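Recall the central idea of this unit: under ordinary conditions, the amino acid sequence of a chain determines the structure it adopts. In this exercise we apply that idea directly, starting from the sequence alone.
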Amino acid sequence: MIRIIECCVCKRMTRANLLLRDTNICLECEQKIMKLDSSHEDYFELKEGIKRMLRYNQLVSRP
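Accordingly, the structure predicted from this sequence is:
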């Protein structure tokens, strides 16, 4: 079964790829992140997406 879930970076509905609890980074965003230099124009957007993912999971894991 293929799972479709929203990417926390680009907000598109995509195939599950890099999951942390119930949040996802799609394959396209993951590849961008791996190649990205901090001076690139997309750096801030991708960094904020990762922060949202980690923040969400921190809230979910609290008792």
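The two ends are 31 Å apart (CA to CA).
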